[in-house]
Write a structure and sequence with these properties.
Residues 1-60, 101-191, 232-323 form the Ig-like domain. This is Ig-like domain-containing protein. It is a single chain. By secondary structure, this protein is mainly β. It folds into three domains: 1-83, Immunoglobulin-like (Sandwich); 102-193, Immunoglobulin-like (Sandwich), CATH 2.60.40.10; 233-325, Immunoglobulin-like, CATH 2.60.40.10. The protein has helices spanning 74-84, 205-215, 337-349, and strands spanning 2-7, 10-11, 18-23, 26-31, 40-48, 51-59, 102-103, 109-113, 118-125, 133-138, 141-142, 149-154, 157-162, 171-179, 182-193, 233-236, 241-245, 250-257, 265-270, 273-274, 281-286, 289-294, 303-311, 314-325. The chain is flat. The model has no long low-confidence stretch (mean pLDDT 88).
């Protein structure tokens, strides 16, 4: 038994859209998705050696439109038609012929001092004439462009601003407004008083008076007489440093009077000779307290140190001694006796 399918009298061609089933007498045809060209008569024919049988059926496929010509929003379409409908044109306005310019206020007369700003202003009609031209003149000549001049012409208001004036700006200023119907003009005067190149008068009277008061010669104050100081004398004698070992610091100090005499000179001596300056030695003299510090002593520092205080009235001195025990440069004695005995015992045993 064979089963065949026909579409509009033609054998059905193989395609992935068609699925055929023949199972124990059950015959079916599935079309996964249909197209308009699938419309028509479909026939199933069963054949064997004894004969054949067939069954037919038909269906119609309505295709989807590629272009939609019906409105999807009827209300919106109606509104669009209303908007696009031709409107009645409004009547054209009657063009009014512009009038000739006419100034309704004159320019001012201005007096300024050099450096001050100046301002001219006036009004003109008609205010809505786009063809009107406005030009400024000074003493009959066109006003030259400058960063000091600013022109204004706005809805009938006409102005001229001068940022700062100079004597050359003095003169007659004329503004002319003109259109196709005629012209009109207005005049004003500007006078500029020049400043002196050198200002001789004071600009601040109160400050000038104060300066004169400060510059007036003052009476000299009487100088206080110098206090007479007596000869210096030590109220605390110089100490001694007798039990020092080489390398230790040493400190000497003493006190003298008068402590307020700035002319007292303090001198140090070592064994009758002036003490030489050294990085090891620091000397101080503060309000009658004199000190001598030796950061580390050496054998050559042994001896007598003398401090001498002197002024114009006299002098005084005090002495102190320094004794220093020197250290041997080469150590000949043993520093660890027990270790030395053990070394000797080991030495004799080796023999």
């Amino acid at each position: 038994l064979t089963v065949e399918w026909y579409h509009n009298g033609y054998p059905l061609a193989n395609g992935h859209r068609f699925r055929k089933t023949h199972d124990f007498g059950y015959v079916s045809l599935d079309i996964l998705y249909a197209f308009p060209e699938d419309s028509g008569e479909w026939t199933c024919v069963a054949t064997n050696s004894l004969g054949e049988a067939q069954s037919s059926a038909s269906f119609n496929v309505i295709g989807n439109k590629v272009i939609y010509d019906e409105s999807q929003h009827p209300e919106s379409l109606h509104r669009i038609q209303q908007i696009e409908a031709p409107k009645e044109l409004p009547p054209e306005p009657v063009e009014l012929k512009p009038l000739a310019p006419q100034f309704i206020s004159p320019l001012q007369t201005i007096e300024r001092i050099e450096g001050q700003p100046a301002h001219f202003e006036t009004r003109v009609t008609p205010i809505n004439d786009p063809q009107m031209r406005v030009q400024w003149f000074k003493d009959g000549a066109p006003l030259l462009n400058s960063n000091r001049f600013h022109h204004t012409s706005d809805f009938g208001f006409i102005g001229l601003d001068i940022a700062y004036t100079v004597p050359e700006d003095s003169g007659v200023y004329t503004v002319v407004a003109a259109n196709e119907q005629g012209q009109d003009q207005a005049e004003g005067y500007l006078g500029v008083e020049s400043k002196s190149a050198i200002i001789g008068d004071t600009q601040h009277e109160e400050s000038w008076k104060r300066i004169q008061e400060l510059e007036q010669p003052k009476e000299k104050l009487e100088e206080a007489p110098d206090l007479e100081h007596g000869p210096p004398h030590f109220v605390q004698q110089l100490n001694s440093n007798d039990d020092l070992i080489e390398g230790q610091p040493a400190h000497f100090e003493a006190k003298y009077e008068p402590i307020k005499d700035p002319k007292v000179a303090v001198l140090w001596f070592h064994n009758g000779r002036p003490l030489a300056a050294s990085s090891r030695i620091a000397m101080r003299n503060e309000f009658g307290l004199v000190t001598l510090d030796i950061h580390y002593v050496l054998p050559e520092d042994v001896g007598e140190f003398c401090c001498l205080a002197r002024n114009a009235a006299g002098e005084d001195q005090t002495t102190g001694s320094l004794h220093c025990q020197s250290r041997a440069s080469i150590l000949g004695d043993v520093q660890h006796p027990e270790s030395w005995k053990r070394i000797q015992a080991c030495f004799f045993l080796s023999y």
